[in-house]
Design a protein that fits this description.
This protein has one domain: 2-Layer Sandwich (HIT family, subunit A), CATH 3.30.428.10. The chain is of the alpha+beta class. The termini are far apart. The chain is built from two helices and five strands; from the N terminus they run αβββαββ. The structure holds guanosine-5'-monophosphate and zinc ion.
Amino acid sequence: MTHDPNCLFCKIVAGQIPSKKAYEDEDVLAFHDIHPWAPVHVLIIPKRHIASMADVTEAEAALLGKMTALGPKLMKELGVTNGFRHVINTGPDGGQEVYHLHLHVMGGPRPWLKG
Ligand code: 5GP
Ligand code: ZN
């Protein structure tokens, strides 16, 4: 399936739901998370519908590589200079809420670590 009409992130890809975009090309879209867990929090998704990491095969290796490598580029562009996290939640026990594969990339100051 390349597009799931019932999928929230497919609707974002199609422009049916607005998002604050950080990057877009023919394969991937990056946009800011609506409920950020960090000062800078972007979601990097494939444009094609893939439900989760549980559905990924070696055929998606290049796509996953592209998504992963986009993280540091975006963090730099968004002014993150002191480190960031890549997170992918998979399935119910992995805390996945939206079943369209997405890579969380989070950066910015972490004041709770001070002291
Ligand atoms: P998950 O728990 O599936 O790994 O993460 C889903 C993420 O999608 C959450 O961090 C949530 O805030 C974000 N999210 C859910 N709905 C929307 C939306 O409509 N727009 C944006 N930009 N982010 C969303
Ligand atoms: Zn989708």
